[in-house]
Amino acid sequence: MVRTSAKKYVSSVHAKDASESQTLLRELIKELDTAARKGIIAKNAAARKKSRMQKLYNASFAEK
User: Fold this and answer.
1) How far is CA 13 from the centre of its chain?
2) pLDDT in tens, 9-55
3) How many domains does the chain contain in total?
4) Complete DSSP assignment for the chain
5) How far apart (Å, rounded) are the C-alpha atoms in residues 53 and 56?
6) Which domain does 38 fall in, by range?
7) What is the value of pTM for the model shown?
């Protein structure tokens, strides 16, 4: 489910839909934390993915 959520989030960011992207980002972070807690992915890998997704959001929707 993490990969599916990540794909949905990235496509939403590329579509320039800020409100939906923010909602999907929250869901993705929740899923990454759950996967890391259960040992599906490493804790640092989850942190790295969360950081990259947040950077993508900030770069796309930053106030200019």
Assistant:
1) 10
2) 999 999 999 999 999 999 999 999 999 999 999 999 999 999 999 99
3) 1
4) -HHHHHHHHHHHHHTT-HHHHHHHHHHHHHHHHHHHHHTSS-HHHHHHHHHHHHHHHHHHH---
5) 5
6) 2-61
7) 0.89
